Amino acid sequence: MKLSKAQYDEIAQFLGHVQPTRQSLRKLKEKFPSQSQSTLLSIFSQEYQKQIKRTHAKHHTSEAVETYYQRYLNGVMKNAAAPVLLELANEVDFAPSLMARIVLERFLQEKEQVIPSKTLINSMLRDPSQIPDGVLANQVYQCTVNDCCYGPLVDCIKQEFKSLITSEMQMQATISAIGHEHEVLLREMLLEKNLSFIAEDQLRAKGYDKTPDFILEVPVEFTLFSAVTLAVEGHIIHWIESKASFGDESSHQAYLQDQFWSYWNRFGPGLVIYWYGFIEELDCHRERGILLKDCFPTDIVTLRHSMAQC
Predict the structure, then answer these.
(1) CA dist., res. 133 & res. 273, Å (int)
(2) How far apart are CA 248 and CA 256, in angstroms?
(3) 167, 204, 248, 276: which has the fewest C-beta neighbours closer than 10 Å?
(4) Rounded CA gap, 157 and 145, in Å?
(5) Does pLDDT of 255 surpass 50?
(6) pTM of the full predicted structure?
């Protein structure tokens, strides 16, 4: 789904005034009922992650870590059953799963007198029953199941939200798998269209470093309208890049600088698919050779095919 800059700004402004909770996702759906729910969820996740990146450093200073740990200890001493860590995370506007990680690491460091490995921390976050303290295990569990964007149980939350976001998100199993699954989906669509291509892993095996997901062995031309306007609206593309996200201004500009223009320089013009939509004003480089779509184009004409028709 494509959104205007004004529509996107309205959604982002709304998200700036709510906590990153499942209840907020429901409010988002109610506030913007005409928008695709998968698009709203993608924007929700990206805006939240931007906020976390902006404030990440201040939450990891030694002073902040010690403050959070002492507040946790004092809180559970007063009421061990209360969601102390979750409420603390919400109070300081930090991801619950990341707050749980900070306190868990500090707890293990005090208990073992060594800095715990990331492997151990990740294992305990995935399975809090491994934590050698029942109260902290419960606190960590509360954080992970209430975090919509981070943490090992995000896939469970996704499953819970399938009823909210309809069939558009049915293919998602976990957040970490979204990108790969959309690449698989794109591969299947290319095969259905009988289009020859070289995949990213094959290109890397040949020694390429920065590569798009697929290079088309026979360049194709597609039109946004009909065959009648093909000569005017058609664009040649040599590669396709799949992005399982919403194309907002900051992410798109970063992709242009780090990836898309590099692909253009090496392989020629290409197509970027933002599966969860994009800000329509960003599709401004068509004549230079970078096209944006929010789905796989159905109106593809291969050069071989068009020459046979002439």
Answers:
(1) 47
(2) 12
(3) 167
(4) 7
(5) yes
(6) 0.73
